């Protein structure tokens, strides 16, 4: 008899999901076998009909319906994330305690790229017949915190490893791959706008900083933890709508992968880090913070 893990495993093989991601997905499959199998089968069986987009919901090829209210919340997060990054990178290109022409030029170019990304997301939202909503405060708090960094080393690591790892490389790519079959006419232009970026150069610089010992490993880890604490808080703040949309388990899975991704990147760069422990510690920290402070924003 074929198990949930076998079915999900076929889907992961088909889409070339990295090995380190699989334990998180298998854990989800064992906890939620029916939804996990239903979700995975549509990626294995390519003959199933495509999804659809209506005013009320997006239906994925596997039949899963997600309320449009939640889709718009996610798109809003993308829009304001890209817009806020563009402003942050533009500011970094002009200000620093120690001038660095190469870094300033990089962030100047990246600001223009992220501005283009924001316009692409705005076009997608308006193409669906909606307007941009209000800026999500918890997400703005993440970038307010990162923007205050004045060290070029911290900025490069924060941008290339932490922000790209937790947002673009996990939520961004997953969102694109999952929703393309349901709305290819929207997602083609969306993907095209995101294709070219400064990510490779940025990652190379982060690699030189980390592997060259320019900054201590513990400093890199503390920097990563402090940002990801805020990232996880910003995701958890939107969990209530995911629950109402019936996709809370999937969003929790994605949030766990999003937090793990930067730590895995650091481990690949030679930093000795226990990824599972780091993720669990962050989840416990968020739960404890919420118990103590309710909706008060993180300041640590």
Short description:
The protein has 300 residues and is mainly α.
β-strand number: 3
Order of helices and strands: HHHEEEHHHHHHHHHH
The secondary structure category is mainly alpha
Mean pLDDT: 82
Major β-sheet profile? 3 strands, antiparallel
- Beta-strand portion reads under 5%
The quaternary organization reads as single chain
Radius of gyration: 19 Å
Uncertain regions spanning at least 5 consecutive residues? none
Question: Strands across the major sheet, in which order?
Answer: 1-2-3
Q: What percentage of residues falls in helices of 4 or more residues?
A: over 70%
The count of helical stretches stands at 13
Distance between the termini: 50 Å
Described by the principal axes of the CA atoms, the overall outline is globular
